[in-house]
Please model this.
Amino acid sequence: MTDPSSGDPVSDGGVSEEFDDVGPDAVDDAGGPERTGGSPGIAVATALLLGVLGPVIALASGVAVFAIDSLTGGLSLVASVVLTLVFGQYVAFGGLAVGYLAWRGFDREGIVSYLGVRVPSLKEIGIVLGSWVVILILILVVSTIVQLLGTETAANQSAELAMGNPTIIPLFIAASFLVIGPCEEILYRGVVQGRLRESLPAAPSIVLSAAIFATIHVMALTGGLSARLTTVSILFVPSLVFGAVYEYTENLVVPALLHGLHNAVIFTVLYVTVTQVGPDAMPAVLEFVPV
Model:
C-alpha cells in the first residue's frame, strides 16, 4: 500500500514502514515529521519511557497540590481533587503526549491526524457499548476465578477515597469522561501504542501498551506486592480491549469513551453501594478501576 501524496510505502495502519525517529526539525508537507519506526528496540524503549514518565510527572504534581494546600491554609476536598486531576491527568498524561509529538515535529493538524481524533460515528458508539459489555463479562469472570483461588487483591486509592467521601463520587463520574479517559488514552493508546505500532505489528503493540498501562497502576494501589500484582494482572484485561478498539477504529475518541464509560459505571455502582447499601457490601469488581 502506498501513500497517494508521496508514493511512500505504508503499513496497513497507515504508518510508513521505513520510519525513523528523527526529532522535531524534519517536517513534511502534511504537518508531521518525516518519521520512521526505526528498530523495534527503540520503539519499545520509547514506549516504556513515556509510559513510566507519565505517572512520575503525576506524582510530582501531587507535591505541587500539597504545596498549594499548605500555602492556602487548606484546600477543600473538591478543590484538592480537581487540582489533582488537572495536574495529574491533563499535565502529566495529556501534556506529556502532546509535548512528545510536538517535539517530534508534529503541528496541531499533524497531532490530530497521528492520534486519529474525530467525532465517532454511530457504528463507533456501538463499538463502545459492545466493548464495555465484553469488558464487564471478562472482569466478572476473572474476579470470580480470583475469589475462588483465594488470591488477595489490592484496593484502588481513588475508590477508597470515594468510599470515604461519597459526595465527591459524582465528580469522579464526570471526570471519567472529561479527564481520565481522554488523558490516559491519549498517552497510552495514542502515543505509547502508536509509537509501538510504527515498528511492530498490531498484536504485540496492543499487548505491550496494555502491559505498560496496567503495570503503572501499581502506584495507585494499596496493599502488599502480591495483591498489587494480582490487581495489575486483572487490569490488563480492559487495557487489552482499549488497545484492540483503538487499533480497529483508528479513532482515539472511541477508547477514550470506552475507558470513561467503564470507570463511570464502576463509580456509579460504588455510589449506590455506599449510599444505599453500605460500604461493607462493596462489590469486588470495584477493585478493578483502571484510573
